[in-house]
Amino acid sequence: MTTALALNCTLKPSPDSSSTGVLLQQVLDALALHGVTGEEVRVVDFDVRPGVLADMGDGDAWPGIRRRVLAADILVFGTPTWMGHMSSVAQRVLERLDAELSETDDEGRPILAGKVAATCVVGNEDGAHKITADLYQALADVGFSIASQAGTYWNGEAMHTVDYKDLAATPDEVASATATLARNTAHLAALLAEHPYPAP
């Protein structure tokens, strides 16, 4: 069975409501239609230390999250937009994933090769396209594969205060992008499970 882990990089700790969490759940629901089971982790609820090692010691909570990343076939990376950029929590997660560049499997492939990543971005300001591009590059750099159109996002009206979680209904364009993300990401994950990348 294909599995997914959704990392919610909101700045809001639980139990505060999270627009990022709303869109991530919609992605997980869409993936479920393709036989993918998943769960969400709100990173800010854990003491993830700064650094670029797999374990920064002294109570660092990243190793536990890392185990869940490695166990999943699909990583759904979600972040809000702050001042036109991804959240500081999202940046920290990328920095922690940098450690995987030096990790390989038994056949010498990058340890994250064969896993698939997708992105979701929310915010009531511009920035979603730039954040998606930054996430694509970073996630591909550490070994994830990214399917066609594997990003979904919502930008609220500029200089207004409506959040995604406050909408009465999901905009058709967002629902369509989310459905495409799920369909293509599940498809690529199944292909890579059947046909892994060649060993060096």
From TrEMBL:
Gene3D superfamilies named among the record's database cross-references: 3.40.50.360
Pfam families with a match to the protein in the record: FMN_red
NADPH-dependent FMN reductase-like domain mapped to chain residues: 5-144
Entry protein name: NAD(P)H-dependent oxidoreductase
Organism, as annotated: Microbacterium jejuense
